[in-house]
């Protein structure tokens, strides 16, 4: 899972979207859910930056750090950047949930913050995990196997990404 984030980081992706099919104890559960990394309640931006920089094994010397103060400063800045990604990830999730929620089996169940999603924890851009339906529901499983339905889901996710990027670009124009 960490390698997926590494691929995104090496390619300098603008956003990261991981698409999955969920499962639930009840076979009647349906709908789509979107997750983003959210550990805001546990850590400050500074603590998050320190922890993330260390867990991502970012070598301080490779970042141009020569003193302890340099290292701490870089980790604090990294924490602020991760906080921005967290906010943008939630926004990306909401832009995707709208078009995705219009599908027969993928009505929007909601957007959820989750601290333990390894596939998202290490991306250096806004990222979400999209659960398009529940394979534990026989009707959902049958529909998710259809090529046309998969294409429609992909188009809805892409529409949400485009809307997110347009909104980001408009915000950037107003803040320059």
Task: Explain how this protein is built.
53% of the residues lie in helices and 16% in strands. Helix 2 packs across helix 3 and helix 3 (68-100) crosses helix 6 (147-175). Strands 1-4-2-3 form a four-stranded mixed beta sheet. It is an alpha/beta fold. It has helices at 2-10, 45-55, 68-100, 118-121, 138-144, 147-175, and strands at 16-22, 32-37, 108-114, 127-134.
Keyword list:
176 residues; alpha/beta; four-stranded mixed sheet; 53% helix
Short description:
It is built from 6 helices and 4 strands. The chain is α/β, with parallel strands linked by helices and about 180 residues long.
Annotate the secondary structure layout.
Blueprint: H1 2-10, E1 16-22, E2 32-37, H2 45-55, H3 68-100, E3 108-114, H4 118-121, E4 127-134, H5 138-144, H6 147-175
Parallel strand pairs: 1-4, 2-3
Antiparallel strand pairs: 2-4
Helix pairs in contact: 2-3, 3-6
- Any low-confidence stretches, pLDDT <50, length ≥5? none
DSSP summary, beta strand count: 4
State the secondary-structure class. alpha/beta
CA radius of gyration is 18 Å
**Average pLDDT level:** 80
CA-based shape: globular
Q: How far apart lie the N and C ends?
A: 36 Å
Q: Hey, roughly how much beta strand do the residues contain?
A: 15-25%
For the largest beta-sheet, the strand count, sense and barrel status come to: 4 strands, mixed
Measured as a percent range, the helix fraction is: 40-55%
> Number of DSSP helices?
6
């Amino acid at each position: 899972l960490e390698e997926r984030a590494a691929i995104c980081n090496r390619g300098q992706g603008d956003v990261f979207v991981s698409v999955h099919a969920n499962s639930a104890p009840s076979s009647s559960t349906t709908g789509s859910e979107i997750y983003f990394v959210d550990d805001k309640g546990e850590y400050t931006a500074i603590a998050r930056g320190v922890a993330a920089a260390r867990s991502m094994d970012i070598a301080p010397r490779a970042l141009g750090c020569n003193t302890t103060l340099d290292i701490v400063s870089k980790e604090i800045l990294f924490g602020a950047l991760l906080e921005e990604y967290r906010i943008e990830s939630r926004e990306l999730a909401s832009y995707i949930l709208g078009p995705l929620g219009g599908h027969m089996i993928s009505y929007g169940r909601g957007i959820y913050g989750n601290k333990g999603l390894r596939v998202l924890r290490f991306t250096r851009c806004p990222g979400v995990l999209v659960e398009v339906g529940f394979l534990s529901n026989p009707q959902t499983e049958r529909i998710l196997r259809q090529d046309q339905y998969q294409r429609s889901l992909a188009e809805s996710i892409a529409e949400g990404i485009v809307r997110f990027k347009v909104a980001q670009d408009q915000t950037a124009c107003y803040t320059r």
